[in-house]
Write a structure and sequence with these properties.
Blueprint lengths: L1 E7 L1 E7 L13 H13 L6 E7 L3 E8 L2 H9 L13 H11 L8 E7 L8 H10 L2 E7 L6 E2 L1 E3 L5 E3 L9 E2 L3 H10 L4 E3 L7 H9 L4 E7 L8 H31 L1
Parallel strand pairs: 2-3, 2-5, 5-6, 6-11
Antiparallel strand pairs: 1-12, 3-4, 7-10, 8-9
Helix pairs in contact: 1-2, 3-4, 4-5
């Protein structure tokens, strides 16, 4: 292992995992579409550090900032609804957690991308986005879903499809809170993008992040390998040559012995 210095941005993706993200107004559903786009983005990263926060009614760090993109894909794969037991949409808490997750010695190269439908918003995300901007952190938002509203599907063990209902037995309808997400992005000096079946706009936001001034940080990575096979190869060659000389002698001895008998 060798300590090397690299230049890149620090990016934290805050992904909504509430039940409303199971709505199928985006194929196959809001959450799966977001995960696929994030997976593609990870494949394009080079020296940038990536972190993943998941949130519903509470926010949790799923993956701290890292350049281990293989680990990032593994942790992303495990994300699913229900991984956060408290329902809701704690965007402000996710922003606050993101602010505290960045390295302290970097500036002008930090960004948070919030992917959510913005429904059941519970905290003051706008003020926290302003605080992030004051700390030099850009806050972008991606709105998942339709403003018209759609039901949330529930699949039984046998594959039968139903829809989530409230305590009164009414079908729950989830709507994209686009206005709030636009306000959060504006307060965080970022950009709001409406996601659809054609894409979430994550690549567009990453291009904007690439325009930020790159910070320098230390990163451990494999630098080189030491080869130790040479002595064993030499021994194998010597044995091979010995075998080439001994084999004809053995054959001659066998033939001579047969004539004597």
């Amino acid at each position: 292992m060798q300590e090397v210095k690299a230049k890149g941005a620090e990016l934290i993706i805050a992904l909504d995992v509430s039940n409303s993200m199971l709505a199928e107004d985006i194929t196959p559903n809001r959450l799966e579409k977001a995960k696929r786009e994030i997976h593609q983005l990870i494949g394009q990263l080079k020296s940038d550090r990536l972190g993943l926060i998941i949130f519903a009614g509470r926010a949790y760090t799923q993956l701290p900032l890292t350049t281990d993109y293989a680990a990032a894909k593994m942790f992303l794969k495990s994300v699913r609804p229900g991984i956060v037991p408290t329902q809701g949409t704690a965007i402000g808490e996710a922003i606050s957690l993101g602010i505290n997750s960045f390295s302290k010695d970097q500036s002008k190269n930090k960004a948070i991308i919030i992917i959510t439908d913005g429904e059941n918003h519970e905290d003051d995300a706008v003020k926290l986005a302003e605080k992030a901007a004051e700390d030099g952190i850009v806050v972008h938002t991606i709105g998942m879903g339709d403003q018209k509203g759609v039901p949330i599907p529930v699949y039984g063990a046998n594959g039968n499809k139903d829809f989530r209902k409230d305590r009164e037995g009414n079908v729950v309808v989830t709507k994209l809170n686009e206005q709030m997400l636009q306000e959060v992005a504006a307060s965080g000096k970022g950009v709001y993008v409406h996601a659809g079946n054609s894409g979430t706009g994550l690549k567009l936001l990453y291009d904007k992040i690439n325009d930020l001034e790159k910070g320098e940080f230390e990163s451990r990575q494999f630098a080189d390998y030491d080869d130790y096979f040479q002595p064993f190869l030499l021994a194998a060659l010597i044995l091979l040559f010995i075998d080439l000389f001994i084999l004809p002698i053995k054959r001659t001895e066998k033939i001579t012995f047969s004539f004597k008998n």
